[in-house]
């Protein structure tokens, strides 16, 4: 099942994932070439922010698509909510 | 300047970065192939944990190498501490 | 409107809030009495974990009560989801 | 041992802790009086931000006082760094 009903949204998510992959490659290059420690720290912190943003976006897409969307059955909504709760519990910050 | 005095540590960091790149590629594939929303959420949450761990490791390496290490000047220690404080402030969670 | 249908759950939340208040008072005492810096750090980190846990619990209660619960209207569910998304966006970590 | 050399800084930290205690009491009152779920969520998210800020401030004070400060012995700096690393590891986000 797609994460979003709208293929355009899915393409946007994918673009975001690829941008983070690019940031990770830049960090690998920085580590390999002996870049300044402080610069690498900022790069990693930037990736952390980007991953948190991606997580929030997919979380919200799931919430709207699998819990709030009109036409779902009570059981489907309960399952969608259980899945979100499981992610929150397993990866509690 | 290298992030760690020990090339073995630097290689370990690089390995960790590459593992995260691999996880990001798996997420891109999952999104492209229409994998289950809940599965993608867990994958992204896993990457978030891995990035946080990487961040903590580089932060600690900087702390030991640029603030605590015997033989640094007072000015170098102050600068190392300023750099850590700047990262903390800029990316406050 | 109550946060949970079940008064027992609401009492449990309140208990949790009061426990965190107690932890904050212990930190105030530690600071006043000149306790070890490292000990205070651990106390504050403990409170942070407790507040994150409280946040997750209230978030989940809202999700189940105002988005997933059988019998809500489509509009009510959309509003409940909007409220969760607003909290996530405003306090993105 | 005091957390900061400067009693004025310690008073500022204490003020900050008391403000968070006040926010927790407001949350307890909101829960008791059946306030809107979404409002409580925002209040708890606000406390989370405040606790993170407090944590960062005490972390930085420790870093400057117990690791970077001129005049410490190598052993004292190593111990100060170990304490920070222990907090980071134990409460990894």
Key attributes of the depicted protein:
homotetramer, 93 residues, mainly alpha, Methane Monooxygenase Hydroxylase, Chain G, domain 1, 3 helices
Written description of the protein model:
Chain A has 93 residues and is mainly alpha-helical. The first copy, chain A, has a single domain, classed as Up-down Bundle (Methane Monooxygenase Hydroxylase, Chain G, domain 1), CATH 1.20.58.1000. Chain A contains 3 helices and no strands. Chain A has helices at residues 7-32, 37-68, 74-90. In chain A, helix 2 (37-68) packs antiparallel against helix 3 (74-90). The mean pLDDT of chain A is 90. Chains in contact: A-B, A-C, B-D, C-D. The interface between C and D is large, with 46 and 46 residues.
Give average pLDDT of chain A, whole number: 90
Based on helices, strands and strand pairing, what is the structural class of chain A? mainly alpha
Order of helices and strands of chain A: HHH
Helix amount of chain A: over 70%
CATH architecture of chain A: Up-down Bundle
SSE topology sketch:
The structure is a homotetramer of 93-residue chains.
Chain A (H helix, E strand, L loop, with lengths): L6 H26 L4 H32 L5 H17 L3
Helix pairs in contact in A: 1-2, 2-3
